[in-house]
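New to this. Please check this record:
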Amino acid sequence: MKNVFKLTLALLVMTAHVDCTPSREAGKVRPAAVAGQFYEADADSLRAGVERYIGSAGIRPVGGVQALIVPHAGYVYSGATAGKAFARLAPGARYERVFLIGPSHRAAFDGVSVERGHSAYATPLGSVAVDTATCAALAGADSLFRYLPEAHEGEHCLEVELPFLQVRLGEVPPVVPLIVGTHDAGKLARMADALRPYFTGANLFVISSDFSHYPAYADAVDADGRTARGVMTGCLDGFVDALADNARRRIPRLATSACGQAPIAVLLMLMERDGGVDMEHLGYSNSGDAPWGDTARVVGYHAFAAVRRAGSAAPQAAAGRFALTAGEKALLLNVARRSIADSLAGRSAQPVGEARLTPALRARCGAFVTLNEGGRLRGCIGNLVGRRPLWQTVQAMARAAAFEDPRFRPVDAAALPAISIEISVLSPLRRISSASELELGRHGIYIVKGSRSGTFLPQVAADTGWTREEFLGHCARDKAGLGWDGWRDAELYVYEAEVFGEE
């Protein structure tokens, strides 16, 4: 009977709450916008200059660097200070991806622009790939993330960090470019929530920010010192207090204490929840220190590194296999059933006690809740990506599967005792370049082309016995509406699922 249910599940249209806008210009390389302005356009001169900045920094490299805060001015002004931050990285250090996060200088908007228009960024030293799968996952995780081409075109704050990465790491992993246009505390908290699953030792975060803008030299040193002490607290409140202190002093011509204060705030939110990362201050200068600098009107530059403490337990990597204990599975199944029962009784959703919420239950994971009645599908709704803690996602999807699946009548109180609940907890989406990377029975598939998309959970292939081509063909035709061969020129993403249910 279970196999009949699985086949029914495969052939019906599974409702998925997904907002994962596809790339408009997949395969397009973003040209270097400020080569010859902010840094050398000649590859040999650029490499030699960056090597000199890093080599003369006097900073010992270490393992476990989780994040850097680096300036983004022209190299003649801030290159030496940036070199101190990148020198903290071990030469050739390996990461799965690099999150590049900086403030918007060219476009005004209230959100976060995630790169969806280019598959690589070019510098005179070569091209660096964009992690299009992670960009897509973030775009689906929260409506805060969207793609604004004007925010990325000509923007320098992320581009200027790439040559340092290319020289220091050698082989640069794919990057996730994020331009922040909001200063709203609530939205920055949402941004931190979406990034939290990736804040692990597997990934590097590069926060691009200059500091004081336009005070006189001595005032800049004073203000930048307070801001640095705020950053060094490793907590958001300490940083905000330092910014407020600078503002209260009414320092002449101080336009801002940090143009990248929003990205820095997000990093500090991530560090506070993590608890295993320490902030280090590596160096300071301002534009008045450069031979061409005007000491009457300067911009400040700091170099920081956030380093994982030896022996600290890093959170689980987003790309790894997600594992739940038997107790966590039981709690989620209870949450799902209680959510439906509370809705039937007219009660609001009940919270789970803080003491019972493990890191896994707090993680932002996609999840589907499937209802089965007498061996037949009775409702199935889910999110491919996590917009909220896992237990809240399960709570919401259980209600939606019971009352909002348009294929079935709403569940009533009489039917609930006969319904069994199954939960599928999903790993983050991973873009694949070839269908041969799809492992039947292990991977679910998500197919995107234009405004159309469709998905099958991993267990669909395992219980239908379809071949890889049949699995893709059915999903493309029956789920995405692209026709049997529509998957061949579509974007393909895979994910894994941990599936468990009531006995």
Observations:
- The longest helix spans residues 326-344.
- The chain has a mean pLDDT of 88.
